[in-house]
Design a protein that fits this description.
The complex is a heterodimer of chains A (306) and B (251).
Chain A (H helix, E strand, L loop, with lengths): L1 E4 L4 E4 H18 L4 H11 L3 H25 L5 H28 L2 H32 L13 H4 L4 E4 L4 E4 L1 H17 L4 H10 L5 H27 L4 H22 L4 H24 L6 E5 L3
Antiparallel strand pairs in A: 1-2, 3-4
Chain B lengths: L1 H15 L3 E7 L3 E4 L6 E11 L9 E8 L2 E12 L2 E14 L2 E5 L3 H4 L2 H7 L10 E2 L4 H17 L3 E4 L3 E2 L4 E8 L6 E11 L2 E14 L1 H12 L1 H26 L1
Helix pairs in contact in B: 5-6
The chains are: A mainly alpha (306), B alpha+beta (251).
């Protein structure tokens, strides 16, 4: 049951990879996240070189976000104007990220930078999510409602120049915050192989104050194009996209997501969020351990260079 | 190549003296890495032709060396900085073999001198890079040893004593070609030692190639990377679209 991956240049058990894709697809279908933050570390733990894992996960995310984006588009829950503005930033961020990951690879710091980036990202996001979901659960137990307080935009967001109207989102705001958000997400996708949904969705709700019904669809459309760009740039600059690996993961992910979506209807939202928070923190801790534990072998070998 | 030439001259000299000569071959002259490749063994076999069959087998040794294509390698050393292990010091080696397998009838140190082993680059201890990023050999030494150890752990460097004699003159060696071997031109060198001196040697090329589908993909990715990237994205979008159709039918 082994298959040879032409770009990663190694033999793998394709059923294990299909299972990984399915497990991540299941969780992402259930929890409503892209799952890149789980898939990339899983591939690295399995032994796929980190730069191949990052680049290939980007193409997996294109596929999984695509099916979500189409579903949202049918419900007319996409603000294409907003997605376009964020994408403009996303392309710049993606290019910066691909450029930086090439530099890191040449300096031999790729593995460490990817791990450290994940530890920071997952630690922050997981901590915030855990904090929020524990509070919600406690509030529910005490019988209080925890509906989000609706607020007006932050003063600094309102004071920025270059305002345009986003009809679908019923917003009249500066283009600067969405562009910066796009840059951040594009950068994360290129350097860490995450779609960035778990960064962008809260930011769209709490910073841009977009109505929640269009947030999901708009972020998915944006993620489709940013991860597609990242895939192309990684393939062109670093030759690190493994199309065979991508096909296996995408297939597994599509299968898993079907079950995940069905499972989600049986669980409560707060429970799902708590599970997601614990999962995010667990992956972050495992990666942190890899950075601080004394390695078995202090030396490492890389082929290539001049 | 220089070694092979030197060996050929030695070999000619030996036959002229009417002593022993060597013929050798490979079970296959090409290894193809296909999609279900999990590693294979090739067999290096040979015979010792001798004008005088009464020559003793003691003091007679066969050494087989299989070398992969050379590559540049960087060895890095991790240092703990603020609690985190970070690659800091590094050493660049130019032209180290990516694969190296040596097998002999007896342990190499019992066959011949260290100088002899170094001259022919026989044995893991004798593997030397063609160039390195320092002029101080002592500084490079721990890195060279670490590189050899890393390759050995990955199953790509090995030193064994599994040359089997099937008769007075016939011998064979199994050479493992694991799934992780790099592609390229390999060579299989067979040396015949008599009392610590090389009396005959032969070199046979071996081709390790990706074949079929894998090879086409690898070429595609490296020759037209932009089109390859677009193809990967097209595939991903197609899959995404298809799975959204399936979801819609079920709902």
């Amino acid at each position: 049951m082994e298959i040879y991956l032409p770009i990663a240049e190694m033999s793998v058990h394709w059923l294990i990879l299909l299972g990984m894709g399915a497990a991540v697809g299941f969780l992402s279908g259930m929890l409503g996240v892209g799952g890149g933050f789980l898939l990339t570390p899983l591939l690295i733990f399995y032994g796929i070189p980190s730069e191949v894992a990052v680049a290939t996960t980007a193409s997996h995310l294109t596929a999984s976000s695509m099916s979500g984006a189409i579903a949202q588009w049918r419900r007319k829950a996409v603000d294409f104007k907003m997605a376009g503005v964020m994408l403009a930033g996303g392309l710049v961020g993606s290019w910066l990220g691909v450029f930086l990951s090439g530099l890191l690879r040449a300096a031999g710091q790729s593995e460490i930078a990817v791990s450290a980036g994940y530890v920071i990202l997952l630690g922050t996001v997981g901590g915030l999510m855990l904090n929020e979901s524990v509070r919600t659960l406690l509030a529910a137990r005490a019988g209080r409602s925890s509906a989000p307080r609706h607020q007006r935009q932050y003063a600094w967001v309102r004071s920025l120049p270059g305002k345009i109207r986003f009809r679908q989102s019923r917003l009249y705001i500066s283009v600067i915050p969405p562009i910066l958000l796009g840059v951040l997400v594009g950068f994360l996708s290129a350097i860490l192989g995450v779609g960035g949904g778990f960064v962008i969705v809260p930011a769209m709700i709490y910073i841009l104050r977009m109505p929640t019904n269009v947030v999901m669809g708009t972020s998915l459309v944006q993620i489709v194009f940013v991860t597609a760009t990242t895939t192309i740039l990684h393939a062109a600059d670093n030759y690190t996209v493994d199309i065979v690996l991508a096909a296996i993961l995408i297939l597994g992910g599509a299968l898993g997501a079907q079950f995940g979506v069905r499972m989600a209807t049986r669980l409560r939202g707060e429970q799902l969020r708590l599970m997601l928070a614990v999962l995010v923190l667990a992956v972050g801790l495992r990666l942190l351990w890899g950075l601080v534990a004394t390695p078995d072998d202090l030396y490492s070998l890389a082929i290539g260079g001049s | 190549m220089r070694i092979a030439l030197l060996a050929a001259i030695l070999c000619l000299a030996a036959t002229a003296a009417g002593a022993e000569d060597l013929v050798s071959g490979l079970s296959q002259d090409q290894v193809e890495i296909t999609s279900n490749y999990t590693g294979t063994d090739i067999v290096v076999f040979g015979a010792i032709e001798s004008s005088d069959n009464t020559l003793s087998t003691t003091g007679r040794d066969v050494v087989v060396v299989v070398r992969g294509p050379n590559a540049n390698m960087i060895v890095r050393r991790k240092v703990r900085i603020a609690g985190i292990w970070i690659n800091r010091d590094s050493m660049r080696f130019g032209g180290l073999p990516t694969y190296y397998f040596v097998s002999s009838t007896r342990p190499l140190s019992a066959i011949t001198s260290t100088q002899m082993l170094q001259r022919y680059q026989i044995g893991l201890a004798a593997i030397e890079p063609q160039s390195m990023s320092t002029h101080v050999p002592a500084k490079a030494e721990p890195y060279r040893l670490a590189a050899i150890q890393e390759r050995a752990n990955a199953g790509l460097y090995a030193e064994k004593t599994n040359v089997e004699f099937l008769s007075y003159s016939l011998f064979r060696v199994r050479v493992p070609i694991p799934a992780t071997v790099p592609r390229g031109e390999y060579t299989a060198e067979v040396y015949l030692f008599r009392d610590g001196n090389v009396v005959s040697a032969e070199t046979t090329p071996l081709d390790v190639e990706q074949s079929g589908f894998e090879r086409r993909i690898y070429r595609f990715a490296h020759r037209s990377p932009l089109v390859y990237g677009l193809a990967a994205v097209f595939m991903a979008m197609l899959f995404g679209w298809l799975s959204s159709l399936i979801v819609r039918q079920q709902v």
